[in-house]
TrEMBL record:
Subcellular location: Cytoplasm
GO MF annotation: an example: carbohydrate derivative binding
Chemical reaction(s) catalysed: D-fructose 6-phosphate + L-glutamine = D-glucosamine 6-phosphate + L-glutamate
Active-site annotation: K360 (for fru-6p isomerization activity)
Major localisation: cytoplasm
Record key words, sorted: Aminotransferase, Cytoplasm, Glutamine amidotransferase, Repeat, Transferase
Assembly description: Homodimer.
Name used for this protein in its record: Glutamine--fructose-6-phosphate aminotransferase [isomerizing]
Enzyme class: transferase
EC number: 2.6.1.16
Domain SIS span(s) in chain numbering: 42-181, 214-355
Keyword Transferase: yes
């Protein structure tokens, strides 16, 4: 049941406020994160963890990269994020001092499962973050954290990205507390920000149709670039992946700082560039990237923070997201990227919920 929407993907994009409420639900008590029932780790048991590996594919991998940028700022533990198919093939140190987190919407992705079996065989503590209750992954790990996103029918992952981010952020806060690295004031600030997100997503969704004419203007482009820095770098990848999957347009993502190291040579007037430039400590640098790209005549579509009036003077099109703590804006910035890809695919007459060559869960290697 598409609930009155023309596609499951659009329905699922519009469910993201509710998904966040469900997923955070009873994992937040007052202004504190509480995983005591689901994980119940003690300071002593957590103290033996010296390394954290987060392993995933596709969209789940990009959610993991966003979360890495939160966790590394809070936790005195080395964190690495790997693509499951690569993790399996390499000689990465694995042992009892490793917490290995496997992020998979379906819990059935062959490479992620194989990576989990490898980590488990080497004695790592294995945790799954999945929407697949009863999935193979959920059955095999030491601990499971469910997304509570409800079934996702559209092949392109949308609401489960948001759900994964929520669980990863809560887990990051929980682990930072266990390692004594997060004050209760900091935790309270983050939790208050997290609790506001569902309303802020719904405010974005009220304006979703503003993206339709922008998408239609660029729908016949053959190539797109996506640029971000810091937390918006993995979001650039996620935005490009959404566009590739459902519209079949070639889209590439770069860390904006890499622009001068090669990609800038490609820029031309018919290559639109999506730049995710929220107002944080990296804003000035991203703003200069917008100016550089415009100087090469490429149109810029910017995702910026409400109140940033300078952006509309340089970018060709701007979509504004509400202001939030700098750690939290990925939850908001991903929504217009999903909707933009959706409207482009619709303008091109693509089969949005069942894109060619793709399966919802990739159970072969
Ligand atoms: C993107 C997409 C894929 C999946 C990837 C991992 O929209 O759907 O890239 O994210 O196949 O799938 P899971 O999360 O089920 O392991």
């Amino acid at each position: 049941d598409k609930g009155g929407y023309p596609h499951f993907m659009l329905k699922e994009i519009n469910e993201q406020g509710a998904v966040l409420r469900n997923t955070m639900g009873d994992r937040i008590k007052g202004e504190a994160v509480d995983f005591s029932k689901e994980l119940g780790w003690s300071q002593e048991s957590f103290a033996k963890i010296k390394k954290i590996h987060i392993v995933a594919c596709g969209t789940s991998y990009y959610a993991s990269l966003v979360a890495e940028r939160l966790m590394e700022g809070m936790l005195p533990i080395d964190i690495r994020v790997e693509i499951a198919s690569e993790y399996r093939q390499r000689s990465i140190h694995l042992g009892e001092d490793v917490l290995a987190i496997f992020v998979s919407q379906s819990g059935e992705t062959a490479d992620t499962l194989a990576a989990e079996r490898l980590a488990k065989s080497k004695g790592a503590l294995c945790l799954a973050i999945t929407n697949g209750l009863g999935s193979s992954l959920a059955r095999e790990v030491d601990h499971v954290l469910l997304l509570k996103a409800g079934p996702e029918i559209g092949v392109a992952a949308t609401k489960t990205f948001t759900g994964q981010l929520a669980v990863l952020y809560l887990l990051g806060i929980y682990m930072a507390k266990l390692s004594g690295a997060l004050s209760s004031e900091e935790e309270g600030r983050l939790v208050k920000g997290l609790l506001k997100l569902p309303y802020q997503i719904e405010e974005i969704l009220e304006r979703q149709e503003m993206l339709k004419p922008i998408a239609e203007k660029y729908a016949s482009s053959r190539d797109f670039l996506y640029l971000g820095r810091g937390r918006s770098f993995p979001l650039a990848h996620e935005g490009a992946l959404k566009l590739k999957e459902i519209s079949y347009i070639h889209a590439e993502a770069f860390a904006a700082g890499e622009l001068k190291h090669g990609p800038i040579a490609m820029l031309e007037s018919d290559i639109p560039v999506v730049i995710i430039a929220p107002q944080d400590s990296l804003y000035e640098k991203l703003f200069s990237n917008v100016v550089e790209v415009r100087a090469r005549k490429s149109p810029v579509i910017a995702i910026a923070t409400q109140g940033d009036s300078n952006m509309k003077d340089v970018a060709n099109d701007v979509f504004y997201i509400p202001s939030t703590d700098h750690e939290l804006y990925p939850f908001l910035a991903v929504v217009p990227l999903q909707i933009f890809a959706y409207y482009i695919a619709r303008a091109r007459g693509c089969d949005i919920d069942r894109p060619r060559n793709l399966a919802k869960s990739v159970t072969v290697e």
